[in-house]
Amino acid sequence: MGISGTADGFDHQTAISRAQDSIAQSVAGIKAQYRVRNVSLSPRKMKPQPYWRDQVTPDLFVKPDIVTRQTHTVCWHGVVSPYVCTSGARACF
User: Fold this and answer.
1) What H or E segment, with its residue span, contains residue 24?
2) Which residues contact 32 (CB under 8 A, 6 or more apart)?
3) How many CA atoms lie within 13 A of 9 on its CB side?
4) What's the rounded Cα separation, in Å, for the pair 28 and 14?
5) How do residues 37-59 score in pLDDT, each as one tens digit?
6) Are 48 and 30 in contact (CB under 8 A)?
7) Backbone angles phi, psi at 26, to 5 degrees
8) Which residues of the chain, if any, have pLDDT below 50?
9) How far apart are CA 84 and CA 20, in angstroms?
10) For the residues of 45-62, what is the DSSP string, one character each?
11) Which residues of 6-15 are buried (b: 16+ CB within 10 A; e: fewer)?
């Protein structure tokens, strides 16, 4: 199952942290919904979910992508907020 979360921030690190935190919140929801104890995550690049645009053009992306053991995060310059990020993961339980 693929999960993703999008968040914004006034700086790059805040937007990254908030997007990755949204994945943790999704995991908590999965555990409650499916009544499972363990959910393992692996990084999965997800399509950006912009708030104010229909799509994110290549010139707006902030590189490099942030890939951890559990998430793949892409960021771009937002319309209202300086940075917006979408984190994605593949969840197995």
Assistant:
1) helix 12-34
2) none
3) 17
4) 21
5) 999 999 999 999 988 888 999 99
6) no
7) -65, -40
8) none
9) 12
10) ------SS-S---GGGEE
11) bbbbeeeebb
Over its C-alpha atoms, the chain yields an Rg (Å, rounded) of 13
Residue position matching structure tokens 């969840």: 91
> In angstroms, rounded to a whole number, what is the distance separating the alpha carbons of residues 65 and 87?
10
Q: CA-to-CA distance for 48 and 32, rounded, in angstroms?
A: 26
First to last CA, the chain: 9
Count of residues in the chain: 93
User: Could you tell me which residues come within 8 angstroms of residue 57 by beta carbon, excluding any fewer than 6 positions away?
Assistant: none
